[in-house]
Amino acid sequence: MVKTIVLMLDAFRRDYITSRNTPFLYGLTRKYGLGQLKQHFGFKNTVGFYTGVHPRKLGLFTNYIYDKKIRAFPYSILLSPFPGKLKFHLINFFNHLQGNDMSYPSINMDYFKYFKLKQKKHFFQQDSIETLFSVFKRNEIGYLFYDFPFIIENGKSRIHYTFRNNDEARAKKFLKLINKHSFYYIHLTDLDSIGHKFGPKSSEIKRTLRKTDGLVKEILSNFDLEKDNILIWSDHGMVPINKIFDLQSKLPGFGKDYIYFLESTMARFWFFNKKIKKQVLSILEKHKDKGKILSKQDKKSLKIDFNNNLYGDEIFLLNSGTLLYPNFFNNVPVKGMHGYDLSDRNETTFLIINRKFRKQAKMEDLFPTLLQLMQLKFQSKIDGKSLFRK
Ligand SMILES: [Zn+2]
What's residue 77's pLDDT? Predict the structure, then answer.
């Protein structure tokens, strides 16, 4: 039986592959070439892989939206004694029990009640659109997705608990699970957290690259590099932070006439009257050297021109390399970030397939490419194109 293995190496920049830091991956690129993968703008980076469509088509762009409702999380009181990160582990566990395997990214709890997730369920839990999972189901392909912390096996999921929350622990667990299936997927995540914490040029990144390269080698030793199908890719790059911008201290108080969501690369605003809108826009205007208020045309070219304001009435996007801090995610300023306007080549990521393939790719091309590799067909109208055709 021919097996298929997909390795997703989170936040792995294309230029991370070198003979010194990643000798195994480098060897693969000598043989098959190194593809250049264009990521989606925003924070829904894997949509194209799962569906073949650009996230815009599914109304997706980033995680949290505001729908004019303020809601206390049902378990808020029970959660109050726990520290922030642990609160979110518990929230995500409750969420899993309710059949929603899309984790809430951990944010400042003070703002949590204003926002909700746009995508509530993992793609394997969605029946309304065609996904890799629905194609596998239709064709009776046995699969195992290790999309940390979820282990998804033929439509059923469970959470993998580990106190050693690192890629070695994840790979070890995954290797134990390799047996009878024909499709395998593993998501390694250390490069993302290390890239944020120490920056993409740090010695910590180099060390993590060597470790990741070793894990890729170890995982692939269970597969036949000639006969099996192998796809290795990443969801986005990592930009070094060279400037920090504190916008929050310059803004009027949150909540009464307007609200905002502070991501690390952008501030999104919802205004409740014209006066406050004018006031906030004039503040943003004064900081044109740090970023820009996205025009209609900007939104169109970034593919976030939605016909609703769930993601905000206005978005202020920072220049590549400038970190918005304070923001809702970070407790300390980070040294690496992604989610800028994609003009920076540090956001470029990579792919490798153990076949002859077109080297310029978009995220949504991965879906038809993978299915062609597995000799499976999709039925829906998609945006991506297989990398095996001209
Ligand atoms: Zn990240």
Answer: 67
116-117 and 64-65 strand pairing = antiparallel
Whether residue 230 contacts residue 328, with contact meaning beta carbons closer than 8 Å, is answered with no
CB neighbourhood size of 222 (10 A): 14
Integer-rounded Cα Rg, in Å, for the chain is 21
Which pLDDT value is given to residue 156?
A: 94
pLDDT at 76 over 90: no
192 C-alpha to ligand 1 centroid (Å): 5
Structure tokens at 312: 């905000």
Residues facing residue 245 across a β-bridge: 324
Q: Residue 184 and residue 136: Cα distance in Å, rounded?
A: 12
pLDDT of residue 74: 63
Would you kindly state where each structural domain of the chain is located, as residue ranges?
4-61+119-241+342-373, 67-114, 243-333
> CA 55, CA 47: separation in Å to the nearest integer?
6
Ligand 1 mean position to 85 CA, how many Å?
16
Asked if 292 and 317 count as a contact pair (C-beta separation under 8 A), the reply is yes
Give the CATH class of 243-333: alpha beta
| Fold of domain 4-61+119-241+342-373 | Alkaline Phosphatase, subunit A (3.40.720)
pLDDT tens profile 171-181: 999 999 998 99
Residues in the 5 Å CB sphere of ion ligand 1 = 192
Expressed in angstroms and rounded, the spacing between residue 62 Cα and the centre of ligand 1 is 12
Q: What is the tens place of the pLDDT at every residue in 185-240?
A: 999 999 999 999 999 999 999 999 999 999 999 999 999 999 999 999 999 999 99
Give the tokens for residue 298.
């900007």
Query: Worst-scoring range by mean pLDDT, 1-5, 109-113, 332-336, 380-384?
Result: 109-113
Centre of ligand 1 to C-alpha 333, Å, is 14
C-beta separation of 9 from 351 below 8 A: no
Q: Determine the distance separating the centroid of ligand 1 and the alpha carbon of 47, expressed in angstroms.
A: 15
Ligand 1 midpoint to CA 356 (Å): 30
